[in-house]
Amino acid sequence: MSTIAQKRGFASTIWDYLTTVDHKKIAILYLIAGGIFFLMGGIEAMMIRAQLAVPNNDFVSAGLYNELLTMHGTTMIFLAAMPLLLGFMNAVMPLQIGARDVAFPFVNALGFWLFFFGGLFLNLSWFLGGAPDAGWTSYASLSLASEGHGIDFYALGLQISGFGTLMGGINFLVTIINMRAPGMTYMRMPLFTWTTFVASALILFAFPPLTASIFMLSFDRMFGANFFNVAAGGNTIIWEHFFWIFGHPEVYILILPAFGIFSEIFSTFSRKRLFGYSSMVFATVLIGFLGFMVWAHHMFTVGLGPVANAIFAVATMAIAVPTGIKIFNWLLTIWGGSIKFTVPMLYAVAFIPSFVAGGVTGIMQAVAPADYQYHDTYFIVAHFHYVIVGGVVFALLAGVHFYWPKMFGTMLSEKIGKFTFVFFFIGFHLTFFIQHFLGLMGMPRRVWTFLPGQGLDAGNLISSIGAAFMAIGVILLLLNVVITSVKNERVGNDPWEDGRTLEWAIPSPPPFYNFKQLPLVRGLDAYWLEKMEGKTTLTPAEPIGDIHMPNGSFTPFVISLGLFIAAFGAMYHVDDKAWAIPVLIGGLAITFGAMAYRSIKDDHGFHIHKEDLMDDDNEDKGVKA
Amino acid sequence: MVNNQSNSNNPRLNYDFRRKKNAEGMRIQVATFTLMIFFTVVSFVAVAADFSKWFVIPFILLLAVVQVGFQLYYFMHMSEKGHEAPSLFMWSGITVAFVTVLAFMTIIWW
Ligand code: HEM
Ligand SMILES: [Cu+2]
After folding, report:
1. Same domain, B60 and B110
2. Which of A284, A519, A543, B77 sits 20 to 30 Å CA-CA off A311?
3. Contact A256/A287 with Cβ under 8 angstroms?
4. Do B24 and B58 share a structural domain?
5. Global ipTM
6. Domain that includes residue B52, residue range
7. pLDDT of residue B7
C-alpha cells in the first residue's frame, strides 16, 4: 500500500496518534504509556529496596518512603499492569474474534486518554508538594489525616483514570457480544478473548464501588463531608469494605487476562489444542463470580466477628478449586505436546510453579485465625508479589514477546529475550521468596527501616540483590526493543509458524481494516483448522465489498484534558485559592463542551471502496493471506 | 414491533402468526398491568390496616420484587430471544449489589 510506504513527518505521526480511534494504534498507546508507568513504578521499587537493603538505613526519609511505597503500588496496579493488559486486549481481541474494530472506537480512544491524564495527574504530585502516602489501599482514617495534597492527587487521579478503565471494559463486552465473525460462537472463542470478556465484566461491576468510595473520600477531604470521619458520626470501616469489594475483583481483573495469554502460549508452543477448553471457560467464569464473594478476607483482623470471618474464609478457599482446574489443564496441554521453548513459552512454564506458590500462600492466608499472624507482615507482600509478578508480570513479558510481531511487524530477539527471562526469573525468586520468612519472623510490611541483629539483615539484603537482577532483566528488554526496531526486519503473517487463532492469518501488522473479508469460523482454533486442511488462508464469509470505517477524532483528548484541568480546581479549592473554582468550572466546561460538540456534529465515517481493496490483492491483505 | 422483525420485504409474511402473537402479548400485558395496580392497592391497604411492621415491610418488599419481575419480563420482553446477554448481566449485577447490601446490613450496621 502506497500510503504506508510514504515516509511520514514526525509531527503528522504524533497527530495521527493523538486523534486515532483504531484499536491497534490505541493498543500501542496503552503499551507506551503503561510501559513508562511500569518503569516509574520500577524506579520507585528500586528505591524501596535500596532503603531496606541494610538496617538503620537513611537513604530516604520515613515520609518519602511512605510516598514511594504508595506510588509504587498505585502505579503498578492502576497505571502499569491494568493498562498494559488493556493494551493487549485492544491489540489482539478484535483480531481473535474476526472483527474490524471494537464496538465503539471513539469511546476506546476516550478510555485511553482518560487513563493517561489520570495517571499524569497522579504523578504530578511528585512536583507539586508531595505524593500520596497512605498506601495503595488508602484506608480512610489514615488518608483523612494525611497532610498536603497527596491524597487529593490519589483520589482525583484514580477517579479520572477509573472512568477510562470502566469505558474500556464496557466497550470490550459489547464488542465480544456483538461483533464476532460468522461462525465464531461463544464456545469457539479463543481463551484470551474469553478472559477479556470475564475481566471486562469484572471491571463493569467492580469499578462503580471504587468510584463511589473515591467520591466519598474526595468530598470528605475537599468539600467538608464526613462519610468516614468517626468523630462526626461517619464510619471509617465502610471505606475498607468498598475498597476491597473493588480490590479483590481487581486482582482477578489482572490475573484472568494473564491466564488468557498463557493459555494461548501453551497451546501454540505445545502445538496442541488447549486441554479441557470448556472446563477452562467454566473455571474462568466461576473465578469471576466467586471473586465478588470474598473481599472480607482482606479484613479478617478488623473484628468482623467469627461468623463473618468463617464465611469469607470458606468462600476464599473455594476459589482455589477453579484455579486448580486451570493449572491441571495447562499441564495436560503441555503433556505429550511437541514443545518449542521460545521466550514466551519459557515465561509460561515458569509461571506455573511461581503462581502455584502464590496460590498456596493465598490459601494459608484464607485460614482466618492463621491470618492474624500473617496479616500486615512481609508474608503478605511475598504472597501478592508471587501472584502478581509470577502471574501478571510474567504474562505481560511473555505477551510482549509473543504479540510483538503482530503489533509491530518485527520479531524481538530470542537470544536477548532468553537473557531477560533468566535475569528476571532469578531476580524475582531471590527478591520475594525470602520475604515469606521475613514475614514469618515478624517483619511488618510498610516500615521504612529495621534494626540490626533481629535476624532480618541477611534476608533483606538478598531481597534487594534480587531486585537489581529484575532491573537488569527489564533493561535488557528495553535494549531488545531498540535493537529490533533499528534492524526492522519485517516478518510475515504467522511468524511463530504455529499460530492457531485468526490473528495469525492476517499480515503483521494488520491493515487498518483488519479483514478484507470477514472470515468464516469453522471451529476452535480457526486458523489451525484451515492449516490442517492444507490451506494458508481463511474461508471468507462474505464477498469483497465496501468497508465502513470511523474517522479519527481529537475530541477524546479534549474531553479528558478538561477533566484534568478541572481536577486542579477541585484540589486547590481547599486552600481557598481564588482561581480554584473558576478553573474547576472551566475544566468541566471544556469537557462538557467537547461532549456536546461530539453529540451535535454528525460524523458518518468513510468507506473504503471495493476497487481499492481489489488493488491490494497482489499484496497479502485481509483474509486472502 | 421490534421483537418480531423479519428480514423479508414482504409485509404480509407470517402475518397471521404475528397478529396472533401480538394479540396474546397484549392480553398478558393488560393482565399484568391489572395485577400490578392490584398489588399497589394491597400495599396501601396493608399500611392503612395498621398491621405489625414486621409483616408490612417484608410484604411490601416482596410485592415490589414481583413487580420488578413483571416489568422486566412482560413489559420489557426480557424473556424473548436476543435478550440473553442483557439478562445475564442484569442478574449478575443484582446479585453483586444484593451481596454487598446484605454484608453491609449484617456486619457493619448490625
Ligand atoms: C488462590 C487464590 C488466592 C487466595 C486464596 C488469596 C488470598 C488472599 C488473602 C486471604 C489475602 C489477605 C491477607 C492479609 O492481608 O492478611 C490476600 C492478599 C492479597 N492478594 Fe491474594 N489470594 C489469591 C490470589 C491472588 C491473586 C491471583 C492476586 C493478584 C493477581 C492476589 C493479590 C493479592 C494482593 C494484592 C493482596 C494484598 C492486598 C494488600 O493488602 O495490599 N491474590 N490474598
Ligand atoms: Cu483478595
Report:
1. no
2. A284
3. yes
4. yes
5. 0.78
6. 2-79
7. 61
